[in-house]
């Protein structure tokens, strides 16, 4: 079973990398990009076959390691 | 006074930190990250700068979950002293021993230069060798030193005089110019600047030395 975790900076936390990307897009002529937020995607291969258990397990991984919940939010997709 | 300096794969200020403690008169044990316990009788743990585990995932995140860090957290929870410098500060925030987080520098650049700090409080064994309001010069060398914490945390830090050092000319975008903070019991200090790299005149200055002198002095008499 595969899981995909999206980690994003929370709203209100300045994202200097996203801002740099926005500026670079502007200088390439892509007008009208009003905001860029950069995050991470983490893909996990799991031995677990029960989707609910897998989700609970990956959520715990996010809380303990994959995301820093002081500044980051996360979402878990199980497939 | 017995200091332990933790060594992670990618640490690069571990020797510097050990030498600074030794110069001040401490006995120093180097402790490998896979060890599960600190040596007997350790008074203070130094968590050094560097790029532990290549800064993978987030700076300090993997190190904070290493076997020795569980012992470091236990040491702090029992009232032990901990000094985290640079990557060490990032690791301490990741363990939860200190609040907040270090983000990418606002200008996205790695900054390596001596900078001026203001000592905000002399009320801790780390800063007792300075005067509150004193200005000192120590180097910074980091890419992710932009301190961030929510408004409530900042209020608590300021209210309890737990901001130890601020930048005189903020180099990295840190909220409220914060360069270093103390734990609630004032026995854990995390700071981005490197006092161990300015600990003797050969370094170009010794403004970092009073921190180690005062730690050795106070912990030896504790």
UniProtKB/TrEMBL annotation, chain A:
One of its GO terms (biological process) is 'de novo' IMP biosynthetic process. Transmembrane segments: none annotated. Pathway: Purine metabolism; IMP biosynthesis via de novo pathway; 5-amino-1-(5-phospho-D-ribosyl)imidazole from N(2)-formyl-N(1)-(5-phospho-D-ribosyl)glycinamide: step 1/2. Pfam families: PurS. Its EC number is 6.3.5.3. GO terms for molecular function: ATP binding; phosphoribosylformylglycinamidine synthase activity. It catalyses: N(2)-formyl-N(1)-(5-phospho-beta-D-ribosyl)glycinamide + L-glutamine + ATP + H2O = 2-formamido-N(1)-(5-O-phospho-beta-D-ribosyl)acetamidine + L-glutamate + ADP + phosphate + H(+). NCBIfam families: phosphoribosylformylglycinamidine synthase subunit PurS (TIGR00302), PRK05974.1 (NF004630). Belongs to the PurS family. This is Phosphoribosylformylglycinamidine synthase subunit PurS. It comes from Roseovarius pacificus. The gene is purS.
From TrEMBL, chain B:
Keywords: ATP-binding, Cytoplasm, Glutamine amidotransferase, Hydrolase, Ligase, Nucleotide-binding, Purine biosynthesis. Pathway: Purine metabolism; IMP biosynthesis via de novo pathway; 5-amino-1-(5-phospho-D-ribosyl)imidazole from N(2)-formyl-N(1)-(5-phospho-D-ribosyl)glycinamide: step 1/2. Its EC number is 6.3.5.3, 3.5.1.2. Pfam families: GATase_5. It is found in: Cytoplasm. CDD domains: GATase1_FGAR_AT. It comes from the Bacteria. The active site is at residues 86, 194, 196. SMART domains: GATase_5. It catalyses: L-glutamine + H2O = L-glutamate + NH4(+); N(2)-formyl-N(1)-(5-phospho-beta-D-ribosyl)glycinamide + L-glutamine + ATP + H2O = 2-formamido-N(1)-(5-O-phospho-beta-D-ribosyl)acetamidine + L-glutamate + ADP + phosphate + H(+). Part of the phosphoribosylformylglycinamidine synthase complex involved in the purines biosynthetic pathway. Catalyzes the ATP-dependent conversion of formylglycinamide ribonucleotide (FGAR) and glutamine to yield formylglycinamidine ribonucleotide (FGAM) and glutamate. The FGAM synthase complex is composed of three subunits. PurQ produces an ammonia molecule by converting glutamine to glutamate. PurL transfers the ammonia molecule to FGAR to form FGAM in an ATP-dependent manner. Part of the FGAM synthase complex composed of 1 PurL, 1 PurQ and 2 PurS subunits. This is Phosphoribosylformylglycinamidine synthase subunit PurQ. It comes from Roseovarius pacificus. The gene is purQ.
């Amino acid at each position: 079973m595969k899981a995909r975790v999206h980690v994003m900076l929370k709203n209100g936390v300045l994202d200097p990398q996203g801002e740099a990307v926005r500026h670079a897009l502007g200088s390439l002529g892509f007008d009208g990009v009003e905001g860029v937020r950069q995050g991470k995607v983490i893909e996990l291969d799991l031995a677990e076959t029960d989707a609910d258990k897998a989700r609970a397990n990956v959520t715990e991984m996010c809380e303990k390691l994959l995301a820093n919940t002081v500044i980051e939010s996360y979402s878990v997709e199980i497939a | 006074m017995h200091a332990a300096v933790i060594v992670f794969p990618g640490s690069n200020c571990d020797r510097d930190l050990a030498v600074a403690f030794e110069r001040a008169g401490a006995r120093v044990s180097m402790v490998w990250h896979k060890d599960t316990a600190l040596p007997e009788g350790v008074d203070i743990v130094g968590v050094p700068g560097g790029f532990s585990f290549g800064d993978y995932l987030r700076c300090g995140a993997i190190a904070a979950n290493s076997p020795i860090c569980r012992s470091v957290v236990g040491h702090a929870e029992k009232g032990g002293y901990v000094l985290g410098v640079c990557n060490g500060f990032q690791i301490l925030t990741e363990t939860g021993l200190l609040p907040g987080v270090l983000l990418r520098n606002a200008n996205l650049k790695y900054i390596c230069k001596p900078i001026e700090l203001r000592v905000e409080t002399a009320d801790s064994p780390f800063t007792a060798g300075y005067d509150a309001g004193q200005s000192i010069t120590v180097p910074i060398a980091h890419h992710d030193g932009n301190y961030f914490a929510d408004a409530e945390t900042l209020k608590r830090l300021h209210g309890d005089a737990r901001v130890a050092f601020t930048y005189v000319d903020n180099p990295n975008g840190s909220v409220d110019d914060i360069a270093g903070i103390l734990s609630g019991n004032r026995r854990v200090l995390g700071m981005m600047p490197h006092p161990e790299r300015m600990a003797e005149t050969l370094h170009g200055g010794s403004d970092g030395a009073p921190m180690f002198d005062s730690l050795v002095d106070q912990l030896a008499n504790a």
